[in-house]
Amino acid sequence: MAGRVLVGLSGGVDSTVAAFLLRAAGYAVHGLTLWLWKPEGTLENPCCSVSAAALAARELEIPHEVVGAQEEFARLVVAPALEGYQAGLTPNPCSVCNREVRFTLLLREADRRGIETVATGHHARVDQTPAGARLLRGRDLAKDQSYFLYGLSQAELGRAQFPVGRKTKGEIKALAAGLGLTAARLRESQDLCFAPDGIAALLPPSPPGPILDLHGRVLGTHRGFAQYTVGQRKGLGISAPKPLYVVAVDPERNAVIVGPESALYASGLVAEGLHWTAGAPPASEFSCEVQVRYRSAAVLAEVHLEGDRARVRFAQPVRAVTPGQAAVFYSGDEVLGGGIIRRAV
Hints:
Elements: E1 3-8, H1 13-24, E2 27-35, H2 50-60, E3 64-68, H3 70-86, H4 93-112, E4 117-119, E5 124-129, E6 132-137, H5 154-157, E7 160-161, H6 169-178, E8 209-212, E9 218-222, E10 245-250, E11 255-259, E12 265-276, E13 285-291, E14 299-306, E15 309-319, E16 326-331, E17 334-344
Parallel strand pairs: 1-2, 1-4, 2-3, 4-7, 8-11
Antiparallel strand pairs: 5-6, 8-9, 10-11, 12-15, 12-17, 13-14, 13-16, 14-15, 16-17
Helix pairs in contact: 1-6, 3-4
């Protein structure tokens, strides 16, 4: 027997196959679902399903528990995200959730049960070495989720496994289908799980204000600046000879600034709230690749550190560098660390 492992079981195909792979490797697998939502509501949402997780556990013949984490999720993830939107930012709540809620609570529950190792269905890899744990991109780059995990510590990564990270999504689905697992037929979860109807549905009404061009001319009226994000083109309600995009949100003036696509490109950024996967940065100045959104490609850049602030200069201009999003630093497949974008340069 390889030991005991606590698997975060959402009911989806990735966490289900992760549990199967660990069981096949000889682990005594214990499934646990962190329920982040109101207990009086339906126990299903775009991110996870208690009934699907319980069914997956029965099919795999492993024990399964549900632990409520509503208060932690609301306080640590949802409230700061909504505050960020109201401040004119575009937050990245998935990174916060993984760092502050999912792994923290999964490890807490593992400790309560005397279990050393935890696992999830994330598309990422962790390489345990004598010098420490290295966080790596998942094999399927189209599904890679290492971007969301940059905030994990050595203590957390040293106890973590990501069994599906070495497989492609196609391989995972084929394996689940071949095993006759119900999860193979379920739809994939959404990224922003707490806002299935859009973030605007959760925000308090905010006053309309001007939509300005780059010269300060009024082109129209917005519905509340918190409903707009850098790079947005649709839903602006204005007409122009050429396509216009949101290039900035200005809470002080209650304004949304628009411009041509060329105005979206930045030569660099400033990031704060830095976290380093190894516990410390590689140097005060170093070259790496930087990824500024989950779905964007990483680009070559030079990083200059000033305390808890990083000044980043891209080798080529990058589109839609958005305050509030994460800037994650990579060396090839390895995650070096990351921080929150304060502003584009």
